[in-house]
Give the backbone structure.
Amino acid sequence: MHPRRIRRFCVPNCLYFIQGASSGRLYHYPSGASEPPEGRAGFPDEYCDAVTRSKYILTVELRSGKVIPSHLSLDVVRKEQQADYGKIFEAILDNRWPSNPADKKTLQETATDLVVKNRALYYYDDELGTLRLVIPYRLRKAVLEEFHDDAFVNAHLGTEKTLEKMESRVYWPSMMSDVRDYVTTCEKCQKAKVNPGDRREEPLHIWPAVKGPMERVHLDILGPVPSRPDGPAHILVTEDAFSKWIVADPLSTTKAYDVADTFVKGVVTKHGAPREIVTNNGKQFTSRIFKEMAKVCGTDLKTVSPYHQAANGAVERQNRTLAAMIRTTTEEAGLDWPELLHQVVFAYNTAVNSATGQTPSYLMHGRDPRLPVDNRLQSPDEPSDPKDMIGYAEDLTNSLQKARNLVAERLQQKAALQKAFTDESRKLEEHTFRKGSLVLKWNETPRKWDPRWSGPFRVIDVARPRATIQDLAQLNDIRTVHLNKLKPFKTPFVPLLHRHEIQPPKHT
């Protein structure tokens, strides 16, 4: 941008000093002016104005975040007042009232506290002792935009601050409720702000109960984690929903083929194919390759809502536990974690789980493995006196079945308690979204000045705890999201006439 020609004046002494400078900050300022400075006699004072301190004038462009292209003026308001309130002007200025007693009484009630000044209609506010310009119906939305949207006036502040600025300046009968409705339906405010009640929590939905190992497993990718330049930076974590047994294997990459291959080698070939796999919406898990792997295994594949970790909370919690165990056992920087990963997993699987009351190893394999410390301390084995292999198998089956029945009952009880506690702590107000509702969607990773909500979207299906939504701006953009990530979108405000107000004439 090229600045206009600017004449600059400096106090002579300052001018000579600056022109002679060959170093320092002043010397390095880029010149944006097209004319050399001129000397002008100044005050006989050793101090000078800030402008005279610099050899150059910096061009500054001042912008309003949202300058309302307002055509509001007193003349415009006068014209609309004459159209809407002509009878009131006649009554106040010329003392001409309707001949019908009922009409006269209505007009007198309407004209109470109204005065005419400078050919404009004002409302006299007894409390403030001020005159407030009466705004006709057709100009009210423009006035609301001016007082709420404009960066100089209010910059999208809330209802109270908007109303405070308007109450001393303008008036119409339903102004307070109109301001409230306008602010709460402002699209920019709805998208940019997070108000109380916006982030409603859907009641906790628990997964169906499982009664044995490998009925359902939960998968997730942990990382990136610190690694050596040629080492793995991610871990594929698999947790069995029943036994809480986990499998964790390093991943060379997070591409779909590597993830599927690692799962088959680390889980399927050692423990069998699970009946159901639950994953997040990562590209690796929604890829054609991973779906084909699940199909070959005869496994149902289910995905949870994007950006809703609680839906796959079991493996998310184990990720945190596993990361903490690795962090506390590895050397500095943790770059040697691949060497210790399987030992850490073994330690987890041989520890009693608080949810089941048993070790994952026992529930998965029917026994607790001997630890190195058991051999060093020569710990005695559990008493066992099977008559033969068949008797051993029967005893093992019976004891394991009893344990698994107890665990299944315990898991159901803990899930019910967790749901009751979570729902109570959230003080839930169930979402009322239904097919056709307009909503905004929470932006999970916004940049600094980006809106926190996007949309509006239309709900095209609800299957709790998720909903399928369609972007109104791009109708081919259809996605499924958790209900916790949505809030109602309020349609733009339309001013309504107050019931005591004179009906303005219809303009053609």
Observations:
- The chain has 17 helices and 16 strands.
- The two ends are 46 Å apart (CA to CA).
- Residues 223 and 234 are 5 Å apart (CA to CA).
- Residues 1-34, 42-69, 502-508 have pLDDT under 50 and may be disordered.
